[in-house]
What we know:
Elements: H1 2-13, H2 33-46, E1 54-56, H3 60-69, E2 73-77, H4 84-97, H5 103-108, E3 121-125, E4 132-136, H6 141-146, H7 148-160, E5 174-177, E6 187-194, H8 197-216, E7 228-233, H9 234-242, H10 247-263, E8 275-278, H11 280-291, E9 299-306, E10 311-315, E11 318-319, H12 327-339, H13 345-349, E12 368-370, E13 378-383
Parallel strand pairs: 1-4, 2-5, 6-13, 8-10
Antiparallel strand pairs: 2-3, 3-4, 6-9, 6-11, 7-9, 9-10, 12-13
Amino acid sequence: MAEKTLENRRMVSGRGGQRNTGRGSMHSDGHKPNQRRNKSRAQQRNHTPKHLFKIETTHFLSVFHSEICRAAKYKVHAPLCTCSKIDKLRQLYRKEKDMNDNRNLSERLKDLDVSDPFDNLLVVPDTKTTPAMFVCNQTTSIEFQNDATVCENKIATKIFDNTDMTSLDKFPFKVSCALCLLDHQRNGFVAIVADSVQELEPTIAKAKACKAAKKTTSHNLHSDHAHFICAVQLSSLKALVRSAKTRAKHSQIVSEILSQLKNGGIDLPPSDNSTIKLGHHLTSFIWLEGTSKGSKRGYIMVLGYIDGPYELMLDLPGGKRHLGESTLESLVREVEEETSLELDKQWLAERLSRRYGGALDENSEDIQVLETARENGNVYFVIPPIN
Length: 387
C-alpha cells in the first residue's frame, strides 16, 4: 500500500510517467503550454482588423463624444485644411485604407457624398491621445466656398443636436474654430478708447446699469463676466508691459494702476502686495496699437478679474466666435456676456466690411482695425465711447 502511494506521488509531481504537467513540460508539438496560448492570441490579433483611428459621420453626441472621445474640447477644421493635426490623421487614414481588410472603413464612410472624407468640415478632439474625427457630410470645399455660414450651421446642428446656440453652456464640452476656419471670419475684440476718463464714464455707467438690471430680473451673469469694468491710462499699461523685467519700476507702475482703479470706484482687496497681470488680448492690442501710426490715445476701457487676494487680471472684451457667427456677431455677443454692455450692431455694421460681417466693401472700414499675422485669427476694433 505504501509503495503504491509513493508511486502515485511520483506520477503527480512529475518524477515519472506522462502525467507530468509541470512548468518544464512539453506538448507533442514541441511547445510549452504558455507558448501555445501566446501564439494563439497573436494569431487571433493578426486576423482582427486594426483601426488606426476612429471615424464617425452621423452621431456626434451619442457615439463620437460619449463612446469614442469623451474630450473636454473639440476643434472644427475647414475642408481640405493643411493643419498639422489633420495631416497626421490623413496619414493614418491612408494607412488604414491600404490594409488588406478595410471593409469596416468603407462601412463607416458610406454616408458621405464624396470619396475624400477630408473634403468636409471635420471635428477633432483637442487632445494628443485620441486619433479620431467626425465628418459632416455636404460641407465640401465647394459648398464651403459658396456659403461658409450655411456649412458651419450644418455642423453645429450635428454637434449640438439642434440645440439653441444660446444654450451651449449645458454641454460637457466646448467647441471652437481651428485657425483654418478663421480665415473667412475671425475672432473679434473691441478697444473702447477716449482722450479722458470723463469721456468713458457714460459707457462704464451704462454697463453697470445693464449688469444691475440682469440681477434684478434674476438673469444669471455669464461665467466669463468681468468682476469690474474701469478706465485705465493706456500709457500706464504700456509701461507695465515694458517694466516686466525691472522689479522696482514694475512695482511703481502697479501702484499707479491700482490708484487709477480705486479712483474709478473699484473696491479692491486691502493688500499692499497686489499684482496685476494683463490678459493675452490686451497685451496684443498694446503691441499692435504701439506699432500703428499716430497712436496717441489717452484711456481705454478694460475688464477686471480678481483672482485671489493678491492678483488682478485686466483684459479686453471680446472672444472666440461660435460656428455660423460672423466676426461682428461674435463681438456683440462676447461683449454682452463679459460686460452686460450691448453694442449697437447696426452702427458697427455700417462701419465694417463684409470680411467681418459688416455691410461695406472689402478694406473700406470706417473705424480702425488692427490685425497682423502675429495675431492670426484675431482682429481688434478701436471704437469711441458708447453714449
